[in-house]
């Protein structure tokens, strides 16, 4: 959960290899849905994922991915 791993392939390739509970929330971020602690909305409609690690890492969600992320987590869209 708190370990970092350096890989030599693209995020697209990593996403393909890690299919299943991993979700592309932004062009630069792929998250493990099993490790999502909460979703936080801001006043402008943006969405941030808070991860269930020691640092409570925060990952920005692309606006076009927010609805799909909520669906993947079994949530209704606002």
Describe what you observe in this structure.
The protein has 78 residues and is of the alpha+beta class. 22% of the residues lie in helices and 31% in strands. The protein has helices at residues 11-17, 63-72; strands at residues 22-26, 29-32, 36-41, 47-51, 58-61. The strands form 2 sheets. It has a 3-stranded antiparallel beta sheet. A hairpin with a 5-residue loop joins strand 3 and strand 4. The longest helix has 10 residues, at 63-72. The mean pLDDT is 88.
Report on the biggest sheet.
3 strands, antiparallel
Low-confidence stretches: none
Radius of gyration: 13 Å
Total strands: the figure is 5
Averaged pLDDT, please?
Answer: 88
Query: Count of DSSP helices?
Result: 2
Q: Give the overall form.
A: globular
As a percent range, the share of strand residues is: 25-35%
- SS class: alpha+beta
The helix content is 10-25%
The strand order across the widest sheet is 3-4-5
N- to C-terminal distance? 30 Å
Topology pattern, helix = H, strand = E? HEEEEEH
Q: What is the fold's blueprint, element by element?
A:
Layout lengths: L10 H7 L4 E5 L2 E4 L3 E6 L5 E5 L6 E4 L1 H10 L6
Antiparallel strand pairs: 1-2, 3-4, 4-5
In short:
The chain is an alpha+beta fold. It has helices at residues 11-17, 63-72; strands at 22-26, 29-32, 36-41, 47-51, 58-61.
Note the main attributes of this structure.
78 residues, alpha+beta, 3-stranded antiparallel β-sheet, two-stranded antiparallel sheet, 2 helices, 31% strand, globular
């Amino acid at each position: 959960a708190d370990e970092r791993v350096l890989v030599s392939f693209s995020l697209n390739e990593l996403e393909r290899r890690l299919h299943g509970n991993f979700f592309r929330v932004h062009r630069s971020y792929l998250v493990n849905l099993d490790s999502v602690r909460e979703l936080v909305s801001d006043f402008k409609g943006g969405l941030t994922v808070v991860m269930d690690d020691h640092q409570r890492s925060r990952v920005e969600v692309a606006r076009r991915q927010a609805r799909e992320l909520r669906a993947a987590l079994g949530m209704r869209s606002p």
